[in-house]
Specification:
six-stranded antiparallel sheet; elongated; alpha+beta; 223 residues; Jelly Rolls; four-stranded mixed sheet; single chain; 2 domains; 3 helices
Length: 223
């Protein structure tokens, strides 16, 4: 009997079209995974940045703007929102309750330009009508600016007012006559106006209307 030789069985090869489809599916899955990771990272980054910004600088949800002056409306109140509470705790500042005082901060002049020690400014304020107030200048880190004149603020008690009760304060590196606050080489500046507001019987709306007449900040020139 003649012997019959059998050929070895071979596994069928994967067609080229199937290999290409498989590679495209794997590549597509990787792209979708990377897109998801990037979306999550972007969302987390934006969320953290916006939270930090709202804590440090505020937003319409927690602050009011009166020209260049920013006011955290619920500081020291039980009803304060989480951003206001976080702002107070992170800055480490002792703040008077907004029910007793208005604290207003300005980082720009009345035209919106950033306050800087390389420029001279004139701050013109109306008569505060018997309320006690103070006006001080700080650097961007919230520190008083060291100067040989030991001048850091003017108050309702120390200001030299105009005959009608209004006042003018100048800011600049070089000494000037009158109500001058030195800014040295501090760089970016922050003006802080504090107005004590004891029980005057004013409503929130009446206070807001009064706050519309806060001092005007004019830039004279820069060097």
């Amino acid at each position: 009997m003649a012997s019959v030789e059998l050929e070895p069985a071979l596994s069928p090869a994967t067609p080229p079209s199937s290999r290409g489809r498989l590679l495209r599916e794997i590549f597509g899955s990787l792209i979708r995974m990377l897109s998801l990771l990037l979306t999550i990272a972007l969302a987390v980054t934006v969320g953290v940045w916006s939270s930090r910004y709202m804590i440090s600088r505020g937003s319409p949800l927690s602050t009011d703007m009166y020209g260049p002056w920013q006011h955290w409306r619920d500081v020291g109140r039980d009803s304060a929102d989480p951003y206001t509470k976080a702002h107070v705790s992170t800055t480490g500042k002792l703040r008077i309750s907004s029910a007793s005082a208005g604290i207003f901060e300005a980082r720009t002049d009345s035209q919106g330009a950033r306050l800087h020690s390389s420029c001279n400014y004139v701050v013109e304020g109306a008569n505060m009508r018997g309320l006690w107030w103070s006006l001080a200048v700080f650097d961007s880190r919230g520190k008083l600016i060291s100067n040989d004149a030991d001048r850091y603020e003017f108050t309702a008690d120390t200001i030299a007012p105009n005959p009608n009760g209004s006042f003018v304060v100048t800011l600049g590196r070089d000494a000037r006559p009158g109500n001058w606050l030195p800014t040295g080489g501090a760089g970016r500046l922050v003006l802080v106006l504090t107005v004590l507001d004891p029980a005057t019987g004013l409503s929130s709306e009446e206070r807001a209307e009064r706050n519309k007449h806060l001092p005007i900040i004019k830039r004279e020139g820069c060097s």
